[in-house]
Amino acid sequence: MTFTTDFHKATVYQIYPKSFADSNGDGLGDLRGVIGKLDYIAGLGADYIWSTPFFVSPQNDNGYDVADYYDVDPAYGTMADVEELIAEAGKRGIGLMFDMVFNHVSTEHEWFRKAMAGDPYYKQFFYFRKGKGPGVPPTNWESKFGGPAWAYVPEFDEWYLHLFDPTQADLDWENPDVRHEIQKIVRFWMGKGVRGFRFDVINLISKAAFEDDPDGDGRRFYTDGPRVHEYLRELNEATFGTDPGIITVGEMSSTSMEQCYRYAGADTHELNMVFSFHHLKVDFMGNEKWVLVPPDFARLKRIVFDWQTNMAAHNAWNAVFWCNHDQPRVVSRFGDEGRYWKESAKMLATVMHCLRGTPYVYQGEELGMTNADYTSIDQFRDVESLNHYEILQRKGLKADDALRIIQVHSRDNSRTPMQWDDSQYAGFMPSSPASASASAPRHAVAEPWLAVNANRDHINAAAEIADSDSIYHYYRRLIALRKELDVIAFGDVEPLAVDHPDVFAYRRRWQGHELIMVANFHGHDTEWTGAEVPDLEGFERILGNYADAPHVRAADGAAMVTASPVSNLRPYETSVWYR
Predict the structure, then answer these.
(1) 22, 99, 251, 382: which one is catalytic?
(2) Cα 109 to Cα 372: distance, rounded to the nearest angstrom
(3) What's the DSSP call for residue 13?
(4) What is the pLDDT of residue 550?
(5) What are phi and psi of 123, to 5 degrees?
(6) CATH dotted code for 7-103+176-473
(7) Is the pLDDT of residue 441 over 60?
């Protein structure tokens, strides 16, 4: 089969291999498990699979601490498995997008081990700096995972920079030898047939001055640094830019929209698109994640519309998404896990998939998977969550209050095993050694590395494939619509209902075609009246999450004529109109 070469019309399916499918019963997902589920992904209609890292790693940050970019961690399989995965996906018209972590490496990586042995060549691969005094790091910067961003090395009387875990040492991209090594890695995987790359926290690779930050955690000194665009253009020209069929996306931590015009500009020769996260901080307090505050819907709309209209005005491209391996499940976050579970999951999908940008679907999102139902901190595995559980208590919170915050915001919410069926382990892993994949090494069946959500009894792929009205089939239709209707892929975005407290709506136009998306973002009836309500004469309702005709409320039971069939919306109701 041929690949979709136009990323504007493509959809990317993200896999977290550790939690996707375990072929051999050791409790960990693996590459052979992914191979076994390729028909499922093809059936959904996805064009690319973005896989989080499966390279050799001590797994202190679930693979984002890479110890060898050229080999597969034995827990996931072998190089032969990777090659088979690429080939089998290709037969189904699906390209593989690999997750490359180039801001930092594991402290077990050969480069860092040689640096710690005193090799001057490899010491220059990292940021080793003298402290400001005995026991005082070079700056007051804070790690993204909590605590100082510097680790002391007594043998050198120096500190090395780690913006994340202490076992993740930041690479010094100022060193051209570092950049050349990274280029070699990208070319190696291009040679294996990889069709895309996702670059982890790539806007942090250029550091500015190493100074104390009196007003923050230091991020202003390393976010969107002074040479980051130069480095990305160089990487583009030396590697993926030589093949127009390869797509790229950069994860942009705490970035600005103005920077993203350059990162993802059509003519800037950096990346095809960017992940930005501002819309997923509307339930934060400022930049503080570890609090409990209700989502700010007005702010959510403002951020989404600002990015949609301004990126379009600057001919730059977004990745559009609600979920990934670092975010809570969206139906738990902005929707309803209970009565309106199905309606809210479909509404959230509609809002995102009809926008301008390349949609990313995270494993289980298409099933409406929810946050973990964990009741004890002992059930969590995420290093960030465990660190902040202790930090919150040191700040004075009771253990139960700290746990509640972890339950809501933990990255483990998205990492629970994929729910394939209603069996004990949700079909994530074989129930006995005999049922393990014949081509995979056998293990005594263990528990999954992370506990399965109890709601697998009704939220699972087998049940939803069999139900024509399921969330799964709704996602299939949304993915197909992007391919069918150029107005979704290429149209402009006109925000509607900007000040409405419940309604999320917008209009798309392209070469005489028009599409209107309307959604009630909340779990109660709402009215949308006034001159802004679109006249839908001549439009066809091509998608919606309520099976019956558009709702028209009659206060006295009599027929009631309204200006538009979207003036009265039921809980989480959404519809898409086209002409």
Answers:
(1) 251
(2) 33
(3) E
(4) 61
(5) -60, -30
(6) 3.20.20.80
(7) no
Which of 145 and 420 is assigned the larger pLDDT? 420
Measure the CA–CA gap between 89 and 202, rounded to whole angstroms: 27
CATH architecture of the domain with residue range 110-169: Alpha-Beta Complex (3.90)
pTM above 0.90, yes or no: yes
Residue 551 CB partners (closer than 8 Å, separation 6+): 565, 568, 569, 570, 573
The fold of 491-578 is Immunoglobulin-like (2.60.40)
Beta strands in 430-547, from DSSP E residues, in sequence order: 492-496, 503-510, 513-520, 526-527, 540-544
Q: What is the sign, positive or negative, of the torsion defined by CA atoms of 153, 158, 160, 161? A: positive
Residue with tokens 């009599």: 558
**What residues does each domain of the chain span?**
7-103+176-473, 110-169, 491-578
pLDDT tens, residue by residue, 1-31: 565 569 999 999 999 999 999 999 999 999 9
**Distance from CA of residue 48 to its chain's centroid?**
14
Answer whether 66's CB lies under 8 Å from 106's CB: yes
Summarize pLDDT for 254-269 with one digit per residue, the tens.
999 999 999 999 999 9
422 annotated active-site? no
CA distance 201 to 205: 8
Reply yes or no on whether 200 is catalytic. yes
pLDDT of the residue at 552 = 42
CA 37 to CA 56: how far, in whole Å? 23
User: In the predicted model, is pLDDT for residue 551 greater than 80?
Assistant: no
Q: How far is CA 547 from CA 213, 331, 573, in A?
A: 55, 20, 10
- Active-site residue, from 200, 365, 384, 502: 200
Torsion on CA atoms 488, 494, 499, 505, rounded to nearest 10: -20
Average pLDDT rounded to a whole number, residues 157-165 = 97
